[in-house]
């Protein structure tokens, strides 16, 4: 009798191409995403060793991390950024790789364009030189970030040496309260298990609450698995997944679609499959969340107070302080965590017919050109602009202090991104992580605010 397997184990085992004693298994990779920051050195390795890209059609490139989000039709001002984008273009031309550059209608953040183009599909193994590759696990795929030397390994062989992680199941059951989003769910989970709580594991998210989420919500959950220390996150595909993928550019068509659906429906954990760790949460306990410290695990309910015995020197906050009412300087809605069309729609509902507070600089950065075009078709850009937001072009933007959209030193920013480490958004910047709803509500008041009062 076959041993029951988890969803992760089913996909992992089916992708092992070589297994030798005392060595990590060699894992075949179905899709490889690259961008301008972590790929140049990998291509240089290939050149020096005179090795071609083994399967260039399996690699997809975009420019996102270091790009400006204003006037993308003009030459990039920052010399390093310009050089990186030019090198990416050159490498893709030389090695025959699909490139969605700044002038391409499919350009955008790597973890936004993969799903929206239908490249990301259930049952796949997916890698990228970026930790938030875990996003793609929302489709029932094994997706994880890799280092630059590993990028070269995948380019050369379409495979990777990789130790098998342990498995963890996180169940969330019940109905969410008003104003609680996927971002709040994952911040709540991390605040309970800590930023090292899932180290060495691959998380499968399950339960009625997870199953009720849209694909965009599921991507937000899996995106931040890495912030709990996990190697990645995965959610079993279902009818919501299939509906999202149907008709997309790289999705199967005709009979291939029918065959794919038949296979995708098998991608669930067996009933008696054993996980190395299981944790359960009740959805009704979750409220809108906000971080107060310098890692994503330092988060509390927005109505709560900062706990005692934590180092708050960098953030210039104090124990027992309420987060509601904390003054802000900037609001950033964007990043691979929360820049999709549903995120922008939810924020626009709160913003509609209201004005940004005078002390606030607020900007929205759509995750891709396709998201931006859809938002403009729906008139969301006009809602943001009339309220006083800046409406930008796609890119990683203020998620990380790597491009022109840095948060000034000493300024407080409420951000829909995924990390709040010291200097993450720029040297000396101070970051509060929250959902698009909370960010939008706070933009209107100029201080951290409960979004439920605006719904």
Q: What would you call the structural class?
A: alpha/beta
How many distinct beta strands?
Answer: 19
CATH class of the domain at 294-454: Alpha Beta
Count of helical stretches? 14
Could you characterize what this model shows?
The structure is a single chain. The chain is α/β, with parallel strands linked by helices. The protein has 14 helices and 19 strands. The protein has helices at 7-14, 40-49, 79-95, 110-117, 148-157, 182-193, 208-211, 215-223, 239-245, 254-264, 341-351, 369-377, 380-387, 436-445, and strands spanning 16-18, 26-28, 31-34, 59-62, 98-100, 125-128, 142-145, 159-161, 166-173, 201-206, 232-234, 277-282, 289-291, 299-301, 330-333, 361-364, 390-391, 412-415, 430-433. A 5-stranded parallel sheet has the order 5-4-3-6-7. A 5-stranded parallel sheet has the order 17-16-15-18-19, covered by helices on one side. It has a 4-stranded parallel sheet with strand order 11-10-9-12. β4 (59-62), α3 and β5 (98-100) form a beta-alpha-beta unit. α11 crosses α13 (380-387).
